[in-house]
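Regression report. Comparing outputs from two consecutive submissions.

Submission 1:
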Amino acid sequence: MGAASAQLFASLGDHVTVVDRDGDGATAIAEEIGGAAAVGDVSQSPFCQSTIDGVVAQHGRIDVVVNAAGVIYRGSGEHTDDASWARVMAVNVDGVFFMCRAALSHMVPAGGGAIVNFGSIWGGIGSAGVAAYCASKGAVHQLTRAMALDHATDGVRINAVAPGEVDTPMLSSGRASRPSADDLQALADATIPMKRLAQPEEIARVVVFLASDEASYMTGAIVPVDAGYTAQ
């Protein structure tokens, strides 16, 4: 979803910096779209600040930050070990906070900007077997709301997209066995009103909207993109 967002922003003429700890992946996407790559771990505060500072040094300003990095651990609370809990929180919550804070250090003095965080349907409703992930995404939703209110008069808008089930590697990760295409379709048939998974590009289009001036009266919003899942 992050890659799809980067590709869509670039197709609209934006200068994009792809941030990921996967150097090969970040570089490949950056080269494809004519952008830059910053390789590192968003759970590390100094990396986040230096990355944002570097973008501003290169381009003179930063207009948009999309916090799409995320990890999942599949396990109940009882069966979630300390290291797995800490890693999910470090990437999904600390990373969002550190990148937001770094971006705000430039956006507020400049008088404007937009931040789009990646929440999840599991940030608003629970699900068995993903306790740490649900908790982390709930925190992202609340962080989005609180920081949006902090900066509502600063010209900076902060919103979140809350995807449902999307056809990405994360959907299959951490399971005892990799689900087949038929397995995923059965999941969609059983749980999703539209009876299909989302494609990353469908989420990216909402991300770009939230970052654009078309969403100028939106801040603190958590926007579900879930084929009606949370409407049930």
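Submission 2:
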Amino acid sequence: MIALQEVTRGFSKNRHADMVADLAALFPDYFWVYGPACDLHVDRMGDAPAPRNTRMQFGNMILSRWPILSTRTLLLPRSRTISKLNLQRGATEAVIDVPGGALRVYSVHLDHVSNDERIRQLAYLNDRINAFTHEGGSVTGATEFGIEDLPLPEDYVVMGDFNMLPESPEYCSFAGASDGYYGRTARIGTPIDALAALMAYAPDSYSWMDPVDPGKRMHLDYIFVSCGLERRLKSASVDTTAMGSDHFPVWLEIDG
């Protein structure tokens, strides 16, 4: 699976490109879903009027080699800002029919300005993740449509740009605080940082680099998994040689 953030349609800085269509075309054998958290009317494209109903969309995308059975985009809490840009952020959820049983996958993009905002967003996200099996996903009671009810997998993978540092207050609010004696104890309902579980963090680990000042680097991107997947974690890494973004891809391999 591939989880992407800051995927846009009709955005002037991206020359009004339809990145969803472009990315889908690069992976013709993959299933995909797109969840625009921010959706705005576009009046003009350069010096010309925009075609009617042109939208500027900003959101997350998930691509999968296996069928995506259902999807929904969770709109994360946000507060109104005065001088700093604050787009609506979201977490796009996909139930994917992987070999061996269905799995939940989330593509997440958190606020970039305030750790208090990120803490609220992570609390909401974790509540929705843990409520999934008794709330259901995008539809329940599907037999009324003449189709079988969708699976409700307990295991999940959460990937994305969290805009937070390892061991920051917001990180600990999501992954749990590390005890001085026992360290971080795996608990049902608390996501596990896959790179930390595999001891894949280097002392100078980073997943983001300032394009103007390459010496400014931070680790902002993560893959979290449910406790049920911890024993299946095989390898994880950050590809800092990748081109095309100020964020670098984080890779995770899971057995089975």
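Expected: both submissions complete independently.
Actual: both completed, but the second showed a warning that disappeared on reload.
Relevant detail on submission 2: The CA atoms of residues 191 and 230 lie 10 Å apart.
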